[in-house]
Write a structure and sequence with these properties.
heterodimer; A: mainly alpha; 11 helices; B: mainly alpha; three-stranded antiparallel beta sheet; globular
């Protein structure tokens, strides 16, 4: 075949393939998408908000809608409805950005600082990540007025996402519950503490008395020569 | 004709209720321990028997509801049998499992006998530990059933109780379940099957008939009462067939081996579990 004719047929096809490759080639960012652990997924936040947590990914991607300086959230100024003391509060659980001013925050994961809170029933058994309840950046403290986790609206904004029909009473469930026998539980969740120790005493008492009696009975029967007839 | 060697101890409803309780209790133990120990690899493998964590939860909830239903049927049956037939006098009938001061006296007598300070009590049809095992199920069903329903329907339950009580309910459910598992798998099996007089297996709860010689030694008061009431002859019977006895033995031992395995794993993996 004539080489020029071959070239004339091949070049458009090569150009088409290259164009297709450029359009369909996966972006570098998604290839570097990293998951914190094998059972944790950010699926709910990724699907719902479009805000990706890029501190785990290198190189950092430009976040859509937050790269524009004017769109960066600033603390709400004091007003008649929001006294200065609320603006100036130092309790992080009441701040709109609970992690404001923390050094090297963007390179950390939740469980590096919140070690005990990271191991909770929702995370271990429900495959739920911290951010699915605590929201995207900036993460508001749970007692901040506008936080979705504020007890006045927690049942609707957070609990009801999975538990349909959740009411304010349901939202009083303690997700990050302390170890039931600990002194922390005695201070913060007294009923759990006392129920735990009461049941432990009951369990031990019944077991020791019944097992001791049963074992002694069997030994006595064994030595008295009783056998099945 | 050979002299009868067996005496009827358990009626057919007694045996059916026991089998239903046995099967549901073991299912709840397996699914419950699988869920409790899910963060461990052992727990994951137990849950995989039922198709995963969520399926195990479904099985646990539905079998629990069935267990509550059987319990209610039993309560109605017991009330009609005791009160309807016998009236108030039925409560004090020694054929029924009503606890009495006589059980306390026999418990104290047994303690003294164990330390060589007295003679063996003359038991009637039910010993005090058998009555304790029976009424312990009521205690367990009320606590486990109540907390189980709260946990199975948490949103509806939070309309009746505060939400923080769900955490307390979960803790109570787990601790009571562990108490029940240890009591049944260790103490009930010890006293029923591993006493020298009953070893290797007491199949009377399956066949309905107990060994006559053994009952003459252990429950003389019961046999005397049957003789006085003229019901001894009709209570006697023959040993079940060899095939039946083998079936009871195989079933009983399969159940016990399974139970001991789960009891061992309960203690073995206990330090690894988080109480939530």
């Amino acid at each position: 075949m004539d080489p020029r004719r071959l070239l004339r047929k091949a070049v458009p096809r090569i150009i088409l393939v290259l164009l297709g490759a450029i359009v369909l080639w996966p972006s570098a960012g998604s290839a570097q998408e990293e998951v914190a652990s094998s059972i944790r997924r950010y699926r709910d936040r990724e699907l719902s908000s479009g805000y990706y947590e890029d501190y785990e990914v290198r190189p950092r991607r430009q976040r859509p809608l937050t790269g524009i300086p004017e769109a960066v959230r600033r603390p709400t100024p004091a007003s008649v409805y929001r006294p200065q003391v609320a603006v100036e509060t130092r309790a992080r659980s009441r701040q709109d950005d609970a992690h404001a001013g923390l050094g090297d925050y963007e390179h950390k994961r939740c469980e590096e600082c919140h070690v005990t809170e990271a191991a909770n029933s929702h995370a271990l058994r429900g495959n739920i990540t911290c951010r699915q309840c605590h929201g995207v950046e900036p993460i508001a403290g749970i007692n901040a007025y506008f936080s979705p986790l504020n007890p006045i609206r927690r049942h609707a904004y957070v609990c009801a996402k999975c538990h349909e029909g959740a009411n304010p009473s349901f939202a009083t469930f303690v997700v990050h519950e302390p170890a039931p026998g600990s002194s922390l539980a005695k201070k913060t969740f007294a009923s759990l503490y006392y129920v735990f120790w009461t049941f432990l005493v009951l369990l031990s008492g019944v077991f020791v008395v019944s097992f001791g009696f049963s074992l002694t009975w069997i030994v006595k029967e064994f030595f008295s020569g009783k056998r099945k007839t | 004709m050979a002299a009868p060697t067996k005496i009827k101890r358990f009626t057919t409803p007694d045996r059916l209720f026991h089998v239903a309780l046995l099967v549901t209790f073991i299912t709840q133990t397996i699914t419950g321990l699988g869920r409790l120990y899910f963060p461990t690899s052992w727990g994951k493998s137990v849950c995989s028997l039922f198709g995963g964590y969520e399926s195990t939860t479904s099985v646990h909830i539905w079998v629990g509801i069935f267990m509550i239903a059987v319990f209610l049927v039993h309560v109605v049956y017991a009330l009609t049998r005791v009160l309807w037939r016998g009236g108030k006098a039925g409560l004090s009938n020694p054929d029924y499992l009503t606890p009495s001061f006589r059980d306390l006296r026999q418990w104290w007598q047994s303690l003294r006998c164990l330390f060589g300070r007295g003679e063996h009590p003359h038991f009637d049809r039910w010993t005090f530990w058998e009555k304790f095992d029976y009424w312990a199920v009521f205690w367990g069903m009320i606590i486990l059933g109540g907390t189980g329903l709260i946990l199975a329907f948490p949103v509806a339950a939070s309309n009746l109780v505060p939400g923080w009580m769900l955490s307390v309910a979960l803790l109570v459910h787990r601790l009571e379940a562990i108490l029940a598992i240890i009591h049944i798998f260790l103490i009930h099996f010890l006293m029923t099957h591993f006493r020298p007089a009953a070893f290797p297996l007491d199949d009377s709860i399956f066949s309905g008939y107990s060994d006559l010689g053994r009952e003459m030694a252990e429950r003389p008061a019961w046999l005397d009462r049957l003789k006085q009431e003229g019901r001894l002859e009709e209570s006697l019977g023959e040993a079940p067939s060899a095939r039946a006895r083998i079936t009871y033995c195989v079933f009983g031992y399969l159940v016990m081996v399974t139970c001991f395995y789960f009891l061992f794993c309960l203690f073995f993996y206990l330090p690894t579990v988080k109480w939530f």
